[in-house]
Each structure stands twice: as C-alpha cells, then as structure tokens.
Specification:
Aspartate Aminotransferase, domain 2, transferase, 2 domains, alpha/beta, transaminase activity, aminotransferase, three-stranded antiparallel beta sheet, Aspartate Aminotransferase, domain 1
C-alpha cells in the first residue's frame, strides 16, 4: 500500500540524528542554533527561535504582540486543529473564518467580517502550498501571523520596488523556477507577517518529527521576540535530535522540491481527463508543492475505495483541521470549508515515491470514478 504521507528521511537525515545520539547531545543545544541560522539564511528573516511545537510558537507570537486575554483571534476553518485548541487554552476568543473553495484559503471578505466580529489578529494558514493575496490581508490593518508549515519557501511575485539582484539563498539554489516562468520571484512566504510559524511536525513540508521555528521578519519584531526567548525555560526549545533532522531537510529542500514539482506536473496532467480538480495556484512558478489535494465531484468514500483497491491510500485533506474537530458547531457559518472537508482528498506525493509508484498513482488519477 502506498501511504498518503511519508517523511523524506534518507541516509543523511539518519546520520545527523545518530551523530546527536553518539555525542549524547539530544536536548536543546547546538543543533537548534544551527537550525535557526539555516532558516535565517534561506528566508532572510531578521531573527528566529526554534521551539518544541507549533502551539508554543503561536503562544510566543501572541505574547510578542502583547495581545490582551479574551481578544479575538481569527483563524481559518481549515487550519490545523491545534490552533483553536491553543487559543482556547490561552484564554483568547477564536473567530473561525470560511475559505475560498477554489484555493482552500481564507478570503479577505471573511477576514473583514471577522474584524467586525472583534478579530484583532489574523493567523493566516497558507495551506497546501497555495499562497494568498498577501497584500489584501496586510491592508486590513490588523497584525498578521503567517503559518507557512505547508508553504515554506514558496515565493510571491516580485514587487516593483524589489531590486533585480535581491535574492535569498533558497532562490539562488532553486532559481530554475524564475527561468521557467520568465517572471522574477519576490519574497518568501512568511516574510510579510509580524511573526511567522514554520511548523516542522511529521506531516509538514519540512519535518523535524516535531517542533517549529518562529520567525521575525523585521528587526523591531525580533527585538521583542529575542527578549522573550532569553527568558524562556530550556524545555520550550527544540531538542537537538529533532533540529538535526530539520537542518538536513532544509539543505535538501531544493532537490526534494524539484522532484515534487515533477510528480505534481504528471498528476495535474492525469486529472485533465476526469471531473475532479485540484486547487487554483495564482503563482504557479513560486508555489510550494505540498502533496496533491483533489477536490472531488463525487463522494470521498467511492474514490477512497477505488484507490485502495489499486494499493493507494487516500485520506481526507483536512482530517485534522479546525472544522473537523468542531464540525457541528462551525459548519453552518463555514459552508465552503465544510464542503472541502467532505470532498477534498489527498493523494500521495513526496520525493521518496519511486517511478513505478508514481505511474500507478497517475493511472488511478486518470481513471477515477
């Protein structure tokens, strides 16, 4: 059976973790520092902190902007469920927003309504590697915390003010996309919010097996976050074993992403003959490929059963989302998100898939009921 999810762990990743074990350095330490340095080099953020979980990263981000308790925090109905649980635990009021059915992302109109309902901060989940119209959200006048756990290193189109030569390390490593599209690529996802959560859990685009890097794109925000980090207990920071795994994956990201894009192109071609569609990507050249979400025109169970007979596991794309956790409560006000919860299937797409497995998935995609 071809599994829906699979971490990209090869010999290099294994050796990095084993080195930590041999050196008896498994708690927070040197590798966490290296992880932060690597993220800063690849994204251009001013500073960052490597924490033990995305939940902790959200907590630190809200502390850094000094958001009073009971304040409204807007989140996507399709965001991971840990977001609503964290907000409730910290004493904030979650305001759950509906999404656009073509992209799976929160709409600006929904955010405007959320602000009218008392939303003072927006946690913008950039799920499935699809980028939002970031400028529209920034113009709303509330702090935006980006969640790039599934869209890391995706790139927005270059702004007119950006110089031709301003490229970060990751763009130089994977600059083929600019050459292919003919359009200059701009800032990385995560470089527009006041803070950015870069989750590294087992189902994120980069996995440390657990953990998150909280990024501060600007100097002013980094000064505040740095002070909080200096006062934090060591148990809040990512252990070296997890950090070692993440560092190697970051260094291999461009190579892995190239493979993902090649597989994605084959899948996208395969579904041209069926009635199901994947998400619209406004910025194809700069988007990150996170698995293969397919919005079904028929029942999920039928597609799952068909794929399973062919040896392919298919899962609901949003099985661990906010709306999946609180469907009865949220569905009436988040109609599009509820529809995607029920109809969006996730097919296996990761660098370790062999040619035979890819060919089998392509065949199934092109013949789905």
């Amino acid at each position: 059976m071809i599994q829906t999810y699979s971490p990209t762990i090869r010999r290099k990743e294994m050796e990095a973790v084993l080195t930590c074990m041999v050196d008896e350095k498994i708690g927070p330490g040197e590798m966490g520092i290296r992880l932060v340095q690597t993220v800063r080099e690849l994204t251009g953020c001013d500073g960052a902190v490597a924490l033990r979980s995305p939940s902790l990263a959200l907590e630190y981000a809200l502390k850094a902007i000094d958001l009073p308790a009971q304040s409204g925090v807007m989140i996507s109905a399709l965001a991971p469920s840990w977001q609503i649980l964290t907000l409730e635990r910290l004493g904030y009021k979650p305001i759950v927003l509906d999404v656009c059915e073509e992209s799976g992302l929160v709409t600006c109109a929904a955010a405007e309504n959320g602000i009218k309902d008392g939303g003072r901060v927006l946690v913008l989940a950039e799920s499935m590697g699809v980028l939002p119209d970031i400028g529209a959200f920034l113009s709303l006048g509330v702090p935006v915390i980006e969640d790039i756990s599934q869209s890391a290193f995706a790139r927005y189109p270059a702004e007119p003010s950006e110089s031709e030569g301003a490229k970060s390390a990751v763009q130089e490593q994977s600059g083929t996309e600019e050459a292919k599209t003919g359009e200059p690529l701009g800032k990385c996802a995560g470089m527009y919010g006041v803070y950015t959560i870069f989750g590294m859990e087992d189902r994120d685009i980069v996995t440390a097996g657990g953990g998150a890097v909280l990024m501060a794109p600007g100097r002013r925000e980094w000064i505040v976050l740095k002070k909080l980090a200096e006062e934090a207990p060591s148990t809040d920071f990512i252990p070296d074993m997890n950090a070692a795994l993440a560092v190697v994956e970051l260094k291999e990201f461009a190579r892995n992403e190239k493979t993902r894009k090649e597989i994605y192109a084959l899948y996208a071609r395969a579904i041209m003959s069926v009635k199901h569609k994947t998400y619209v990507r406004q910025n194809d050249g700069g988007s990150t490929i996170y698995s293969f979400p397919l919005v079904l025109n028929s029942g999920f169970k039928d597609v799952k059963s068909y794929a399973q007979k062919k040896g392919i596991e298919v899962r609901q794309a949003y099985e661990n989302s906010v709306i999946a956790l609180r469907q009865e409560e949220i569905a009436p006000s988040c109609i599009c998100a509820n529809s995607l919860l029920l109809r969006c299937a996730l097919f296996p797409l990761y660098p370790r898939l062999g040619q035979k497995d890819v060919a089998r998935i392509v065949k199934v995609l092109s013949s789905l009921p």
